[in-house]
Amino acid sequence: MSQRDYYEVLGIERQADQSTIKKAYRRLAMEFHPDRNQSEGAEAQFKEASEAYEVLSDDQKRSLYDRHGFAGLKNSGFSGFSGGGVEDIFSSFGDIFGDLFGMGGGRGGSRRSGARRGADLRSEMTIEFDEAIFGCSKELSVPQDIPCEGCAGTGAEPGTQPVTCPTCAGRGQVMHGQGLFLVSTTCPDCRGRGSKILQKCGECTGDGVVSIERTLNIKIPAGFDDGMSLRYGGQGDAGSAGGPPGDLYIVVGVVPHETLVRQGDDLVFSATIGMAQAALGTSIMVPTPDGDEKVAIPKGTQPEDVITLRRKGVPRLRGGGRGNLHILVKVEIPKVLNSKQRKLLEEFVESSSTKKRRLFS
């Protein structure tokens, strides 16, 4: 079964802003939420809408999707929610479901315990054209929050422990009456953690995390393109209250080549020759990823003719060999002629069997 376009899933235009995207998702979440809709297929539609929202609400993922489609997301490590449970969705978008249902998504869980997933980190790096073609390894320094070793991430001074929040009795939520309904909101005393720190750790001042600078060895696979990203699962900021860490996304920029233009897995080189060379044939030197190569231009070559060098392009990311290198031939017509050149061309025109009249006066 083919995958539907994310914009089509949410029923929005490709130019939609973040407010429109969120409203569209909230509407679909209300309609297909498993706690509200028990009909067959509702959960699948709920997951589909959530996956579309996860991509389009994230500027980096949305840009990658707009440029390279589903293949670009897959190459960056994105897998979506199709193979997981709805609890993954509640964990990721708990703020939205908290607004809708007042219970952290209708299923409680990590929202009541105050556990929060760590923030995703985004970093950028630039590589040379040849490095993108053949792959490379680069070192990159990334700032990151990690669990505090002094308090093991609890935020409490070593030797002490957080205590159960007296306001919510450890639930992280408090109930309020609104007419005939009871509404659950985040506990204002412990902010959803379910516990309070009486003595804060002196090393992390109660945050449970400390900031460091990590140096990572980043491996760029052969065939990587400008704007693609690498995803390192669990390498983002540490979660709070036992929550999982976020992910690290590295967006790669590629320095353009002086003369080669990349088009997917193919390369294009524009070669300009004179009209006499086009008529008589010639040879030129063409830059390729493997070095300069001498290429014959056949006689009678016309403007905009294309000569293709097979398997001289970019290695395919998913395997299957390499793309091609296309030589686009441009023929230069002289704007000014000296008397000798003019005479020779007039003689050529006179002798041509296909022309019966003079072209020059």
Summarize the structure.
With 361 residues, the chain is of the alpha+beta class. It has helices at residues 6-10, 18-32, 42-56, 59-75, 86-92, 94-101, 110-113, 129-134, 275-280, 339-351; strands at residues 121-127, 136-147, 163-164, 173-178, 181-186, 195-196, 209-220, 229-232, 248-254, 260-263, 266-274, 282-288, 291-297, 306-309, 325-332.
The average pLDDT score comes to 84
Hey, roughly how much beta strand do the residues contain? Answer: 25-35%
Rg estimate, integer Å = 31 Å
CATH class of the largest domain: Mainly Alpha
Low-confidence stretches: 97-113, 357-361
N-to-C terminal Cα separation, in Å?
68 Å
**CATH architectural label of the largest domain:** Orthogonal Bundle
- The helix/strand order is HHHHHHHEHEEEEEEEEEEHEEEEH
CATH topology-level name of the largest domain? Helix Hairpins
SSE diagram, text form:
Layout: H1 6-10, H2 18-32, H3 42-56, H4 59-75, H5 86-92, H6 94-101, H7 110-113, E1 121-127, H8 129-134, E2 136-147, E3 163-164, E4 173-178, E5 181-186, E6 195-196, E7 209-220, E8 229-232, E9 248-254, E10 260-263, E11 266-274, H9 275-280, E12 282-288, E13 291-297, E14 306-309, E15 325-332, H10 339-351
Parallel strand pairs: 1-9, 11-15
Antiparallel strand pairs: 2-7, 3-6, 4-5, 8-9, 10-11, 12-13, 14-15
Helix pairs in contact: 2-3
